[in-house]
Design brief:
By secondary structure, this protein is of the alpha+beta class. The chain has three domains: 42 residues; 48 residues, no CATH class; 125 residues, Chitinase A, domain 3, CATH 3.10.50.40. Helices cover 57% and strands 11% of the residues. Strand 3 and strand 4 form a beta hairpin.
């Protein structure tokens, strides 16, 4: 009984952090359960044929290709497109970002966007900030390129962009300029083969170290999984 009382106390503290009481939480869960039962009942006699799934995927592939031909950014902003079609020469990468202070980056970025910006002066300020993190960036590069190195472990140790929710994630980079900075684009596509790791890439936000993981493509397994979602 004491354990149960403590559990209730901790539970109420937890949901209070989301602005919920025990009653509102219970109402929310009850409504969710009712909605699922209604949904299951409404759909119980609905069947979807293989041809309907195929037609949907074929149409989505065509839309993805048209979007990419029109604008690479239009393609890139639709997560569904990437599940059925990826343009040739795209790559999967992982990266380490050794960032300068966010306030310094904000200042540099704002200066870049001002009318009549003095790029030479801005570059000088950026280089000063990069110098402050160079030692850390060098240490990250040394660990990342050491024989038998675990790149993901180096990301966790050094990257300012690391988070538990995205740990180990591969990033799709399209072979189209304008989606990422020119410095990053040039570095990514200068790597010759999967497994290659770049040197330090200086940008306005800090240093990047990029690993070329693999060529990007939609596999049969990917499509098989997506077919279940479509159905």
């Amino acid at each position: 009984e004491k354990i149960l009382e403590k559990e209730k106390e901790l539970f109420n503290e937890y949901i209070a952090g989301f602005g919920l009481t025990e009653d509102t939480f219970l109402m929310w869960q009850t409504n969710t359960a009712i909605q699922k039962k209604v949904n299951d009942y409404v759909l119980k006699d609905v069947t979807v044929s293989d041809s309907e799934v195929d037609d949907y995927i074929t149409k989505l592939k065509a839309e993805a290709k048209q979007a990419y031909e029109k604008s690479a950014s239009s393609y890139a902003t639709d997560s569904e497109y990437k599940k059925v079609w990826i343009p040739e020469d795209a790559r999967y990468i992982k990266y380490i970002a050794v960032g300068i202070a966010s306030s310094d980056y904000a200042e540099i970025n704002a200066a870049r966007n001002e009318s009549g910006a003095d790029d030479a002066e801005i570059d000088k300020k950026r280089d000063e900030k990069l110098a402050e993190i160079k030692e850390k960036a060098d240490a990250a590069l040394k660990k990342a390129t050491a024989e038998g190195a675990d790149f993901d472990a180096v990301v966790k140790e050094y990257s300012s962009a690391y988070s538990e929710s995205t740990a180990g994630e591969q990033i799709l980079v399209l072979n189209s300029k304008g989606l990422i900075s020119d410095a990053l684009y040039d570095a990514v596509f200068a790597l010759e083969k999967p497994g290659d790791i770049s040197g330090l890439i200086p940008t306005d936000s800090g240093y990047y170290i990029v690993k070329y993981v693999s060529d990007a493509k939609v596999t049969d397994s990917d499509l098989s999984d997506y077919r279940k979602t479509v159905r």
